[in-house]
């Protein structure tokens, strides 16, 4: 209940348990035969791991997946993630019933709410989009704090390790980030904000996934519930 309460208190978003997105962590070109070098080249032309993270309203990282190469689409990572399986199978983290917030690069699902696209949105839908952006901004801020605290994750630093070792470093940084938050260490004074802009090109790309129409219909119903909730609360 704590996760949902914090999103409701801070942003007015009901039944939200987290915000989700991906960010690219630069690595050197893999040279070992076990790795296909070309799949680590992302849309910006450099080698990376595309890391999916979800965080709560207080910027604690509640889930991380750092196993996919830079060419992987955000929606592909989500579709094959253990986190999605937990939601899909009803085994929600911490026993929470609710949904995550993702950008338009993600599919609309019952447990993952995305923005409402289109120029003819109603005033109620505009309000939903505005609050969605504010609440989803938690993950962008989390990326900034994480990379400012552990500057080896910055794009220009580049992790000079194999993808497997780089993933272990990224996971360790996420754990240490949570420990810092738990013990009340102040966030770095200069949080990195511009870095994540490089990762936003995938927004608006319509992903293809199994049972897409049925899941989208259920997701649309969940989203409309939030639209009505926010319009009544305003």
TrEMBL record:
**Where is the protein found, in the record's own terms?**
Nucleus
Fetch the InterPro entries from UniProt.
HARBI1-like, HARBI1_dom
Q: Which UniProt keywords apply?
A: Hydrolase, Metal-binding, Nuclease, Nucleus
Instruction: Give the principal location in a single coarse category.
Output: nucleus
Task: Write down any Gene Ontology CC term.
Answer: nucleus
One Pfam family matching this protein? DDE_Tnp_4
User: For the DDE Tnp4 domain, which residue ranges apply?
Assistant: 20-178
**Cofactors, names only:** a divalent metal cation
Q: Which family does it belong to?
A: Belongs to the HARBI1 family.
Which PANTHER family does this UniProt record tie to the protein?
Answer: GH03217P-RELATED, PTHR22930
Record protein name field: DDE Tnp4 domain-containing protein
Source species: Ornithodoros erraticus (European soft tick)
């Amino acid at each position: 209940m704590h996760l949902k309460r914090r999103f409701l208190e801070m942003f007015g978003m009901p039944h939200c348990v987290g915000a989700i997105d991906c960010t690219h962590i630069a690595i050197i070109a893999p040279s070992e035969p076990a790795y296909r070098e070309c799949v680590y080249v992302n849309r910006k032309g450099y080698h990376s791991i595309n890391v999916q993270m979800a965080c709560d309203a207080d910027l604690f990282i509640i889930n991380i997946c750092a196993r996919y190469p830079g060419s992987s689409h955000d929606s592909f990572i989500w579709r094959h993630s253990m986190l999605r399986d937990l939601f899909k199978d009803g085994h929600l983290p911490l026993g929470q019933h609710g949904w995550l917030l993702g950008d338009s690069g993600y599919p609309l699902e019952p447990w993952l709410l995305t923005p409402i696209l289109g120029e003819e949105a109603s005033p109620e839908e505009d309000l939903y989009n505005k609050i969605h952006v504010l609440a989803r901004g938690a993950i962008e801020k989390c990326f900034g704090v994480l990379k400012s605290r552990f500057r080896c994750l910055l794009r220009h630093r580049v992790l000079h390790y194999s993808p497997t070792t780089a993933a272990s470093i990224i996971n360790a940084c996420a754990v240490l980030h949570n420990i810092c938050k738990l013990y009340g260490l102040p966030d770095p004074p200069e949080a990195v904000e511009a870095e994540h802009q490089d990762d936003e090109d995938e927004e608006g790309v319509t992903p293809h996934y199994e049972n897409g129409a049925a899941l989208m219909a259920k997701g649309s119903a969940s989203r409309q519930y939030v639209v009505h909730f926010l319009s009544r609360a305003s």
